[in-house]
Amino acid sequence: MSIHVSNLYKSYNTHPALKGISFTAKPGRILGFLGPNGAGKSTTMKILSGSIALTTGTASVYGIDILQNALEARRHLGYLPENNPLYLDMYVQEALAFAAEMHHIPHKQARISEVIGMTGLIPEQHKKISQLSKGYRQRVGLAQAILHDPEVLILDEPTSGLDPNQLQGIRALIKQLGKAKTVLLSTHIMQEVEAICDDVVIIHQGQIIADFPLSELPMRYTDANLEALFIRLTTTG
Ligand SMILES: Nc1ncnc2c1ncn2[C@@H]1O[C@H](COP(=O)(O)OP(=O)(O)OP(=O)(O)O)[C@@H](O)[C@H]1O
User: Fold this and answer.
1) Which of 9, 121, 135, 178 lies at 20 to 30 Å from 146 by C-alpha?
2) What is the mean predicted confidence (pLDDT) over 76-100?
3) How far from 35 is each of 40, 42, 133, 206, 219, CA to CA, in Å?
4) 101, 73 in Cβ contact below 8 A?
5) Structural domain boundaries of the chain?
6) pTM flag (> 0.80)
7) Ligand 1 pocket, 116 CB below 6 A?
């Protein structure tokens, strides 16, 4: 019940980006949200985070309807948007203090220090964001997303463009976070899904074409692995 999407439609002017999608992401599990470029992943995540409006349908975060009670739904949600927009001129501590202020977090400095520790930012915490490597910038984005300790995390391609060392660190962090939270994660890296996700939803041309627990892949499909299944489902029909 942590993220529930029901019959969701979204059109950009006349272009239908989502054509009635429904799925559920469950607490304590990481859901890999997969699909080719332009399938509708970011659109879905933006709607859930309240960044853009839906056309029709319903969605809830932590049991709270995102239209009827948008502010309350957002309190329970941490969102890392695609391309992780950050204020490059800010220092790490400053950016987190700004985010803490927005969320009205009590004992601000203690929580910032805690999150800096959790996200492995201690060695970089006194730098400007513009001085950080891409991997550390992702950590700042994640730190901002988890600062208010939301039950639900929406991460739009959190590992894109990272080198293998940075990848490993960020994946370990997401896996750790996923033990206690509901995580909806989009990625194009099938290996990553196999490494950290519990559930898989595949979207293609604005429609859900697969929705299953990863452990059931061999029982449900004859494809050799997730990549083979993804390619078969998104290049036919
Ligand atoms: N602001 C917009 N205006 C018009 N069309 C848009 C807009 N944003 C997205 N679209 C279109 O909606 C569809 C879904 O796009 P979306 O960004 O949700 O896909 P995605 O699955 O996140 O893709 P990618 O993997 O490339 O990030 C695409 O056809 C895209 O061109």
Assistant:
1) 9
2) 93
3) 8, 10, 27, 9, 21
4) no
5) 1-76+152-161+182-237
6) yes
7) no
- Ligand 1 centroid–CA 92 distance in Å is 30
Which tokens is 132 given? 């950080």
Superfamily of domain 1-76+152-161+182-237: P-loop containing nucleotide triphosphate hydrolases (3.40.50.300)
Q: What is the mean pLDDT of the chain?
A: 94
* CA distance to 86, 98, 167, 206, per residue, from 147 (Å): 15, 11, 21, 32
The answer to whether the CB of 15 is under 6 A from ligand 1 is yes
The phi and psi torsions of 17 (rounded to 5 degrees) equal -90, -35
**In angstroms, rounded to a whole number, what is the distance separating the alpha carbons of residues 182 and 211?**
16
Contact status, residue 190 vs residue 227, Cβ threshold 8 Å: yes
Residue of 74, 82, 136, 122 lying closest to 99 (CA atoms): 74
